[in-house]
């Protein structure tokens, strides 16, 4: 998950496609390029990760990625990964409701301020 987030930050479309599971690689390069060009990624927070119940070859990662674009926002997702030949591949993700940030938590934008004094005010 972290390497895919870094690829979004670096605008590495080839890596994003290569790390998708072969059954889901029909990704539209133009859609990825638009997503990459319309957002500046500000931070990643892993909320939960676990292996599949019956196998070590399936894993799930719940994360929130913060970004700025036309307005600040976040992407909260539970992603599914499959391990084949020793390598993890992204399969798909379930979009989830935005994560609430506590008023006294550090702001997700990286300013060093508390959320209430930055984007929460």
The helix fraction, in percent, is 10-25%
Structural class computed from helices and strand pairing: alpha+beta
Strand-residue proportion: 35-45%
Model regions low in confidence, pLDDT < 50 over at least 5 residues: none
The gross shape turns out to be globular
Largest sheet: 4 strands, antiparallel
What would your notes on this structure say?
- By secondary structure, the protein is an alpha+beta fold.
- Helix content is 21%, strand content 36%.
- It contains three helices and four strands.
- The chain has helices at 2-10, 13-18, 29-38, and strands at residues 40-51, 58-68, 73-84, 87-95.
- It has a four-stranded antiparallel beta sheet.
- The two termini are 31 Å apart.
What is the secondary structure topology, with strand pairs?
Elements: H1 2-10, H2 13-18, H3 29-38, E1 40-51, E2 58-68, E3 73-84, E4 87-95
Antiparallel strand pairs: 1-2, 2-3, 3-4
Provide a compact summary of the structure:
By secondary structure, the chain is of the alpha+beta class.
Which short descriptors sum up this protein?
121 residues, alpha+beta, four-stranded antiparallel sheet, 3 helices, 36% strand, globular
